[in-house]
Structures are given as C-alpha cells and as structure tokens.
Design brief:
The complex is a heterotrimer. By secondary structure, chain A is mostly helical. Helices cover 73% and strands 0% of the residues of chain A. In chain A, α6 packs across α8. By secondary structure, chain B is mostly helical. Chain B is 72% helix and 0% strand. The chains are: A mainly alpha, B mainly alpha, C alpha/beta. Chains in contact: A-B, A-C, B-C. At the A-B interface, α1, α3, α4, α5 and α6 of A face α1, α4, α5, α6 and α10 of B.
Chain lengths: 300, 327, 293
Amino acid sequence: MMAAISDSLARPVDLREPSGWRRSKNQIMTILMWLAFVIVLIPLGFVLVTLVAKGAAAISWQFLTNSTIPPNVVPLGTGGMGAAVVGTLEVTGFASLLAIPLGVLGAVYLNEYGGNRILARLISFMSNVMTGVPSIVMGLFIFIIWVTHFGYSGLAGSFALACLMLPIVIRSSYEMLILVPDSLRQGSYALGASKARVTLTVVLPAALSGIVSGALLAVARAAGETAPVLFTMLTVEQTNANLFSGPNTTLPFQIFMNAQSAYTGANARAWGAALTLVAITFILMIAARIITALFTRNAR
Amino acid sequence: MSTVTKADPASPAGSASPLHQRRPLGDRGFQIVALGAGLLVLVILVLITYTTAQQSTTWFAGGFKDIFQVAFDGNTKFGAMGVLYGTVISSVIGVIIGVPVSVGIALLLTQVVPARWARPFVYVMDLLAVVPSVVWGLWGIIVLVPWLQKIYLDIASGVKGIPVLDSLFGGPNVTGASFFTAGLILAIMITPIITSLSREVIATVPDIDKEGAYALGATRWEVIRGAVWPHSQGGVTGAILIGFGRAMGETIAVALVIGDSVEVTPHLFYSGHSIAAIIALQFGEATGGEFRSALIGLGLFLFVLTILVNLVARWFVERSARRARGG
Amino acid sequence: MEEQQDQLNVQQDQEVLPKLAVPDTAPRDTFNGTAIFDVSNTSIYYGSFRAVTDVSLTVYENEITAFIGPSGCGKTTVLRSLNRMNDLIAGARVEGDIRYRGVPLYGKDVSPIAVRRRIGMVFQKANPFPKSVYDNVAYGPRINGIRNKGKLDEIVERSLKQAALWDEVKDRLNKSGLGLSGGQAQRLCIARTLAVEPDVVLMDEPCSALDPIATGRIEDLMHEIKSRYTIVIVTHNMQQATRVSDRTAFYSVLRDEKSDTRTGVLVEYGSTAQIFGDPQDSRTQAYVTGRMG
C-alpha cells in the first residue's frame, strides 16, 4: 500500500506550465470559443451593413410618409411606404394595448394569487410553451375565428399579434414580479391593505421598469412579425388609417412581398422598408435597455 | 388611522367589528380579472387546437393515404410528407450548424470572459435576436442565395462521383435557394435563444464545484469538461431542443430562401419546402375546399409538433433547474 | 478528548501510528524543519479592499499548521493565496513575497495549474463531482495523463484508503459521488486531492459542516497522512486546532477608526502548545480563553 511517493519531491521544484498537450488543448478550446463569437458577428455585420447601405439609398421623407404604395414594377422614387408605416404603428399599437395589460395581469395572477396551485403551474408552463408556437399558427387561428366572419382588417392583425405577445409579456413580467422583495408586500399588508391594493400600489410600481422594458421588447418582436398579418389584413395600396375596418398592411408584409419580386424598384423599396423596420425595433430595444439601466441604478 | 380595534367587551356580541369586514369587492374583482388573464393562455391554446382541427376535417377526410404522400400541388395532391421532410431537414441543419456556435458562445461568456466585460457581448447577441425574420429572409434571398449558388455549384462539381458526398452535395439541380441555405439562416436565427438559455443553465453551476476542479490543478477546459458540463448538460439539451422547435416553426425567412418545390431528396442543395413556408406562400391562393383545409391541417400539425418539442425541452430545462436549486 | 485538552498537546495517536518519527510533546524547533511556505510581509487585496495586511509566517514540512481567528480576519484569504486560488477572483492581488520551497509562488513563469497540482485544497462544503466515486478520484490523475486502467485502479484504491473511505465505498465505486453522506463526501474530496499526490494539502474549515463523529474521523485521517504531506488547516473550532495542529497562527481584525476600514492581521504564530498555553499577545489570550468555555 505504500506506493512510491511521487518523485516530484525529489526533483527540483518545477512550477512551469503543464505538459504541452494539456496546454494546447486548453488554448485550442479557448480559441474555438472566441471563434464561435466571431462567426456570429459575420452574418450580423453583413446584414446590418447591407441594410444600411441599400436601405439608406431608398429612404427619404417621401418614402416614409407617402401614402401610396406603388406596384412592383415602378422604380424607386414614386410613392412610398407611408401606408405600411401607419399600418405597422396602428396594428402593433393596438396589439400592445391588448396584450400588455392582459399579460401583466396574468403574471400578477401567477405570482400573487396562484402560488403553487396546479392551475397556476399549468398556466405558467403553458405560457412558456406558447412562446414557442409558430406565429403563423396565430395568423391561421385569427383567420378562422375572426376574418371569416368579419373580414380582413387591421384589427384582426392586432388580435393575431396580441396572441403572440401575450405569453412573452406574461413571462417577462413574471420574472420581474418575482424580484420584488416580499418585505415590501409585508409592509403594505401590515398597514391593512388588501391584496389588490398591495399589488397595484406597491408591487407593480416596484417592478415597473422591468415590466416596461420587457413589454417594449415584446412590442419590438410584434412589430417585426410577418406571418400573423399574412392572412388577417390582406393588403392595401393606400394608407388605411382605420384600424377597425378594411384591409391594411404593415412594413414586414411589404418587405416580404417586395423581396419576392424580381423588379429592382420593389427590391429597393424592400430594403428601405427593412431599414425603417429595424430602426423602429432598434429604438424600442434601446429604450428598453435605458429604462432598465436607469431604474435599476435608482433602486440600488 | 387605527387599524386595530379591540372588541369592546361591553358591546353586544354581533356588533360590526372592523376586524370582520367582508373582503372588499374590488379585491375579489381584481383577482378574477387576473385569473381570467392567466386563463386566456389556456383558452387560446385550446381554441387554436379546436378551430384548426375543425377546419381541417376536409383534409383528414381525404384519408391517410392522401395525407402521407409526399407531393403537395394545391390541386389534387395534399400530402404532408414532403413539407414535413423540408421542415425537419432544414431544422436539423440549423441545429447542427448553430449548436456548436451557440454553446461555444455560452461557454465563452460564462467561463472565459470576466463577468463585468460580458455586457457588450450580450448586447451583440441581443442585436442578433432583434433582427426580424423577414429581414433575414430579405438579405437571404437577395444577397446570400446568389452568392451561395456559386459556392454550391463549385462543391457539386467537386464531389461529383464520390458516393455519399455526391448524394448530399451534388446533383444537377443544385441551386442557391435550397434546404441548406434555409438551414444556414435558421442556424443564425436560433443562435440567440440557444445561447441565452444555455447561459442561464451554465450559470447555475455552483462555483464551489468549479473551484474543486481548479484546486486539482485543472486547466479551464478540463474544469468545463469535468465540473461544468455534467451539471449543465441536461439544461443545454433542453435549450437545443427549444432552438430546434423555433427552427421548425420559422416561417418567413425560410419561405424566402428554401426554394419552392416540394420533394423529398437527400440533395441538400436542392430546392425544397417546409410546412410553415408552404402555408405562408400558398394560403392566399387557397380559396376553398380541400386546399385551404389542407393548409390549415398542416398548420395544426405544426402547432402540435412544436408544442410537443417544447414540452420535452422545457422538461429538460426545468429538471436541470430543479437539480441546481435542490442540489 | 478531555485529557488532551488538559495537556494542550498535539500528539494523541501514538497508538495509531507508532511509526511516526516526530517527537511528541516539545514545541518544534523552528530551525530543524524544512520550510515549505515562506510568507513575508504579504498583503492581499480584493480590488481596493485590503483583506489582509503584512502577514509573515513559515509553514514547515510534515506539520499541521492551523489558522484560527474570528470571521473576517483573512485566514481563508491567506490559505487560498498559498495555492493561487485567489487568482480566480477578479481584482484579487497579492503584494509581498510568498515562496514555496524557496520558489516565488507568484513569479513570472509560474503556472497556477502546476501550483495547484502540488498544493491541493479541501473545501468547507464537500463538493464531489456529479460522477461516480471512481471517476471523482480518478479525475486528477486522468487530467495529468494517466490513462492506464490498472494504474488508475491502483491510485484510486490507495487514495481512498489514505482517506479512510475505501472500506465504505469499495463495493460502490461506480455509484455517484453525490449519494454519499456529508462525512463520506468530504473524505471523497480528500481522496480526490490525494490522488494527484500533492506535496501540501490545504483545508478550509473541512469539518464545519460535519457532525462530531465525522469530524473525528477526518482528524484521525489528518494525523495518519501527516508523515507524507504538509497540512495547513483553517478552522474556527479551537478544540480542533489543539487536537490536530503542531503550529497555530492566530489572526484578528484590525479596525482603523479614522478611515473606518477593516483588515486582517496575523497577531501571533507559534507552536500550538505555546499559543494556547502561553499566548504572548493579549488579543490571542482573549480569543483563546474566551472561546474555551
């Protein structure tokens, strides 16, 4: 049992790097990990550069506001994407109006009332699962229950987008509500407040910045969605400011249609619309980050 | 405002004491509304299943033989196999390309980059995630497809005659808009979600386990293999499955770059189709009868498929999270 | 155990290991031992916070040296600096000189990995890997290139025997290491550390999470392996220090009223008999008598 004691003690103390192959393997793996990040930068950079280069060529005040969308053959210069911009703002705006309050309330139910009950756990689990449902299914769903009865409209598109946003808002709001320390709630209860009052006056304000930030990201996601609007709004060539009646169109939809066209005019408009769309989502994302950063710092 | 009122022993029993007030109506109402909002999730999911199933009965009535064929021509043939093949193959390619990159980045951000410098990397990943699907598709079809076509043609002529490689990468109909291109774009698109979920999982590995490995004189890679990976493998598997589910459901980018032909073929550089893409591209033309019913049926099929994959994935992720909390 | 406390002596196990060559009761003559660690005027910082100030001591071969002191006095910080585990904490920095067998531990060409192979560590909370018992112990030898199954079997058996765990696990080597009791898991971690045949074993409050019986077994183990290794143990349990250690270093917290900062300092260092029987510094006396109730 007295195995030979390592003769490292007999040798002079050598504290240099371990054997070559171990160090090489470690270095190679580290390089590969960095490479993975670089690999991801390539398409991202590529797409952003192309977007800015080709999109900027198309964008002008007229492009953004002109209310007539020209047919594909027409080269760049005539008409614009105003109809799609308005449509995007309307449809996404109304969808947010529906999904955000409902989503926050759903998260409130899960965190404040549901506890460990089976129903609450089921809802929580299925919300997570629902975030993985393809958005085209939402479009089909709204088509079947609404469009077939009430026709195409921006409203139908809003419903479809709201279905998409709901589980996202529930989940992000829930993560924020969990972070609110229980001591805040206890303090409010101790003053005799009802649960609703505690939630509305103490818990939600405490989680507000996180909730808003999460909601903005959901809005950005919805603004960029094409599939839900494919079967719900048809399309228009003139701005339709009325959300509730008549077909409408959005930027993603226009990009999708124009991308499939062979005409250079259409393609150019697609790039312009794409840059506009990405700019909108980018602004929303930055707003979300700023809100998080500002209010988290205040809380410290 | 006094909140505690001692019951006056002198007062008659049954006198209204503030301690026995009924629960305010507003409170009850609020709870009901909140519950309703939560239930909405379940209601929507159930309704989706019901309504799409109802609308696809015409398609189902066509019989299993019809559904299980490959061809889908919008006229007389409404088979699901061809589009299912495209969905699966492009998603598998997406996962094969995307997973090493995603897990690599997740490890980079948790094990290599010090915590306080991780933020810019996370911003880059957020940027990647926020690019809408249709923009990837636009870039894909206008920029990537022509460029890849040249590469594919070169590869195809290079592998001509070689047994396995020729069937995968060769063939006379090699084109830019194909299964492989769709897989490539999918890889880019699912990387953010796999990376983000994997990071969460890997971050739950207790520091003390890593220290134990370091204390034995292990290099960083050895610590990852010995202490980090055994803890995170379940959760990362779940993350990969979620990415796979996303890939299968991805509609617009795939519709733009997968080509437009329904077929089952091992040639990855050939045009194909996917369930989501065919619904997106052909629903407008499906004005009635079995065509529309078939597309809705395919939508139901995709719905159920992605739900199943997500169920399994979430089970993996939550089991790993439970282990981390409990152990 | 009471008799030993009365004597304030270290050597209790002559029955267990008659082959122990070291003399028993007399405080070790400092000039006779080989210096394993030479710490000179060392301060350790975490960012701008100075955790420990101006520590100087020498750890001798084949002795058990105990670091004791109240919480926040830096004893764990000093311990971790001896195998460069502080390197893993962002912003940690060592100023001063720490030598291992005469070689500067923080020298330019020194690899922390090589350091940790020779200077092992057992942690406060047992941290077996989520692998089998066998794979836990074999982990270290494997990363050092030993693949031969026969050799690994031999190393695993020897290490588990040294850690007094072999008899309990020899029939369940392939079961998960996570299924062991607290005391067994800690002995597994010790076996894992011994498997790479280190020169020194550092222990950071190894028994603080264990019951007295498990603690006793580990203390016995320490005595048994002392002849082959040098041990430095951080402990908040003074009885343990008197039971196992040859030499004791008492640390305390120095508070600077003006700047409202705290830092750890080494107050007194000497043979265990002297520290507990005849402390020279009043702070040492206050600590060892206060807790000895």
